[in-house]
Amino acid sequence: xxxxxxxxxxxxxxxxxxxxxxxxxxxxxxxxxxxxxxxxxxxxxxxxxxxxxxxxxxxxxxxxxxxxxxxxxxxxxxxxxxxxxxxxxxxxxxxxxxxxxxxxxxxxxxxxxxxxxxxxxxxxxxxxxxxxxxxxxxxxxxxxxxxxxxxxxxxxxxxxxxxxxxxxxxxxxxxxxxxxxxxxxxxxxxxxxxxxxxxxxxxxxxxxxxxxxxxxxxxxxxxxxxxxxxxxxxxxxxxxxxxxxxxxxxxxxxxxxxxxxxxxxxxxxxxxxxxxxxxxxxxxxxxxxxxxxxxxxxxxxxxxxxxxxxx
Amino acid sequence: xxxxxxxxxxxxxxxxxxxxxxxxxxxxxxxxxxxxxxxxxxxxxxxxxxxxxxxxxxxxxxxxxxxxxxxxxxxxxxxxxxxxxxxxxxxxxxxxxxxxxxxxxxxxxxxxxxxxxxxxxxxxxxxxxxxxxxxxxxxxxxxxxxxxxxxxxxxxxxxxxxxxxxxxxxxxxxxxxxxxxxxxxxxxxxxxxxxxxxxxxxxxxxxxxxxxxxxxxxxxxxxxxxxxxxxxxxxxxxxxxxxxxxxxxxxxxxxxxxxxxxxxxxxxxxxxxxxxxxxxxxxxxxxxxxxxxxxxxxxxxxxxxxxxxxxxxxxxxxxxxxxxxxxxxxxxxxxxxxxx
Lengths: 311, 340
Prior knowledge:
The complex is a heterodimer of chains A (311) and B (340).
Chain A: H1 3-8, H2 18-21, H3 29-32, H4 39-73, H5 79-83, H6 97-127, H7 133-145, H8 150-165, H9 170-195, H10 198-206, H11 211-223, H12 237-243, H13 246-251, E1 260-263, H14 267-271, E2 283-286, H15 302-307
Parallel strand pairs in A: 1-2
Chain B: H1 13-55, H2 58-61, H3 75-104, H4 107-118, H5 130-144, H6 150-176, H7 191-215, H8 219-227, H9 232-261, H10 264-269, H11 287-294, H12 300-333
Helix pairs in contact in B: 1-12, 3-7, 3-9, 4-5, 5-7, 6-7, 7-9, 8-9, 9-12, 11-12
């Protein structure tokens, strides 16, 4: 019996031919079972096991490092260690208070240098048109410089700051550190800004916000929680997490009056009105005339209610 | 024009001016970032020029570094830099790609799900989220490897890795000393501990980028392979990895660039000896650790020489990093088969 015949009378097997029509006739079900005796299955399971083992093996150093630090250093840990100066040779006690203060000062200075440059250029990169030569060049340079050897940053700071000011200083360290931080901050910030849903940006522009207002009132407040400072190089993730709460703090000034604008969906009309003069907490509600779900950057209802919120 | 009582109004002249100024400011800062990059490179090269004129190309090919006799050359350092990075990369790629596959193909979630199934908890509102959480946890743990400072890795290498590998090295040297790889004995710091630590440091980069590339493989390719009857690993080896290979390769090249410039951990572990040896157990030196060791006590005259060495390191790392960034830029946009 051919395939076509079977198809022709699907579902209604004629009783004498019922067995012949059984699609599973002649299929050995034991063949379909997953069995380790089958080489293909065995290789598959084996490779899965190997990959799992290698991944876990790769994590051993992490725990080993943490364990070593806790075991060797944990016993000596006390409040004094964080506040006192290092001991003279052959002396007991003391601490590394100067090093902690130095770390804070240098990281702080480095951030003062690199964060403004990094974030402002990131805004430019994120807003630039896709064909922009400058944007792609800067992006490429930043990607190349993320792998910039730390020793070369030190060499550069030596050549520029140390030789110019006549000695080693916190400033020289901060300059070197800011060079290492800049590309990471730039690329992370650009990514964070690009992660903001484009409909939020389009909503702001559609309501007549200037580019600057869009950046400061929509893009940055939404993007800041996504900023994750360079792990390992900056180690200041808590700082960013606090920054991420900034919008909440604004709304804590008191329950903002529910200011409402009702736009009637004519984007050209609404675009003529400014968006920047609303009070914090204002809700911009868009009503589009007639056509719910019309294609376009602004769709009526809940979405617009969210996207139009002014921080 | 809208009347006064209306709630909105067109942007004032100040706002328009601010907008123009802010845009110009952002563009200016983008230029500034670019200029800083160019300035750094030029500054290092210019500082090296006197030494380049004095020592010429012989600086790159000689084997001696003796500040007392004023003889300087960095071939052993160049060799050590490349050799340690290549070895570390081989090790790091093997483990890094394995981890990337493990994380990208949802193995963790599968295992956890199977485990939950035993307890019949797989659809439980709380435990049912566990597979996904474990996936994230493992990914973050691997990324955490990149967050450990270089110096801490150096300390860890001194206190843990060297005592751990030393007996094995003795044994290998005694039994198989005729193999060039095991030609000398490990007497403390040396190439092998440096390579091990370096491979761990380059692993997160390879895993993160490799995982991204694997996840980016369109799922219809996977489904097609399954539909043809391929097992999971036949699919991974014949379809997923080849499709993602340009991205994985880009990640490996970037990791190579980082390994070349790695400083503190290597300065503590590599032994700082001007030796060119194929042996894994021999002490060696790298450009970065030479700079780290020599700079603090360099006299103004030596600084020029060190700048020359820094320029060599700069050239190598910039070349490799640019290659990696270029490969990634070209491949990340459209993986093969995403159209069609």
